[in-house]
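Lecture 7 notes: from sequence to structure.

We start with a single chain of 71 residues. Read the sequence below before looking at the structure.
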Amino acid sequence: MAYNRKNFLERVLAVQKIVLAEQEHGATLSWIYRNRIKARFHISKSTFDNYLSIAAKAELNRLEECNQIQK
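Now the structure, written as tokens:
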């Protein structure tokens, strides 16, 4: 699979979904990173924090709109 913005945003969205699901059970961000994210996605803590600050769902929607207009 080629690397592009869509793949990156889908990865970010996957991380964000895991975080939301774990936070419902009362887990902290540090625990979520150490026990759920680090081994699966192989990213650093600072990258994890950056992923949480991205509005991935909105950007994916914008990309899909742009792709539909271009077709």
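The longest helix spans residues 5-23. Keep this in mind for problem set 3.
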